[in-house]
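Figure caption, in words: inputs first, then the predicted bound structure.
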Amino acid sequence: MANLFNFAQGIRLLIGILVLVVLCGGGIFIVWTSLKILAFRRQQRKGDREERSRRFDANGQARPPRASGVCNHCGRVFDQLNYMTGNDRICDECMEKRTGKNALLN
Ligand SMILES: [Zn+2]
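Bound structure (zinc ion present):
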């Protein structure tokens, strides 16, 4: 009778440990997933901000489309050129000289 009692106690202890392990594992999984989701959203917001600042200036005006090409004003080749209306291609340096402000920062 005493052996059966010990057996039942042992089983209850094992079940308790198992439930505890499963709950801890679930908790760790939930916390880990939440952190990953937060990190992903933060990265997404940062990417959106960068994309927006690349396409619009501080006043909300759309920047001219950019692509690689040769500047019409200084004749140098650039990876990123501003394509203005009237097929005018101008680099950031020439744009800054002309307008007095940085094409990317303002
Ligand atoms: Zn230029």
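The radius of gyration is 31 Å.
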